[in-house]
Request: fold
Amino acid sequence: MRFEWHYEGPPLKLGAFLRQQGFSRAQLKKLHYQGGFIFVNKRQRNTAYGIRTGDRILVQTAPEQAADSVVPYPHDLAICYEDDDYLVVNKPAGVASIPAIGRKNDSMANMVKAYLIKTRAESQAVHVVTRLDRDTSGLMVFAKHSLAHSLLDRQLHSEAFLKQYVAIVTAKSPLPAHGWIVLPIGVSQGFYMRRIVSTTGKPSVTEYRTLAQTSQAAAVLVTLHTGRTHQIRVHFAAIGHVLFGDDLYSRQPVSFERQALHCAHLRFWQPLKKKWLDIQAPLPKDMAGLAERLQLPLRG
Reply:
């Protein structure tokens, strides 16, 4: 990958400038030892070189090696946004985010690798920025190269990165129009895949707004302020409003083919294009149908 800058500022070491642009120390080492190049005013320099106002800096990174463990799986992708740095796709329910031992190579990562090969992307390494549970649908972000990945990783747990879900939950008691669930989440000792509210767990914060509700169900727009595994499912089960179809966190799961959860909205700063991205994915047919049956007025 090729990156260029026109430097304006006080004298600075080249390595310090590149770290400001998002390069990690490990990435700078790769530039030196694995075939990358750094030029200042068309002359090759090392990271100790001092740069000044007016200097033109060019970085050519070493080719990225795609992991052999991710086997390409050609399949149509619902692409919601794409540029040279990021690919955002709408994941269907029932598809894993990444390959798992003992399962077929038909995860989103496998599909994205096939897409990168088909489109002759400069790097065919798969960088998964955000994941979703197998039975959760909605927006997933992939980076197209390591710098894009590391830059977005910095935003993931900050206010700059907004991630919102639509969930359909039971509502035997009314939900407020706006609420917060602040409960620590830990791993269940009896079943490592299950998470529980625990005093020894990690701090976890979920915000929600009630979009519609009846005496038995509610649709909520959920904003995550922390990123714990199964956070939405655990938090809503803990306050007595289990997600429809969630047989892991309800003793009496409400009939639906999967947990009724969809990542519907992402907003984040594209650090290389220097612009905000605001991306939405409509409610899938199965959740739209569930909302209609429950008489919850939601747009598909």
Notes: The chain has a mean pLDDT of 92. The two ends are 39 Å apart (CA to CA). The CA atoms of residues 62 and 173 lie 58 Å apart. The chain has three domains: 2-60, 64-153, 162-263.
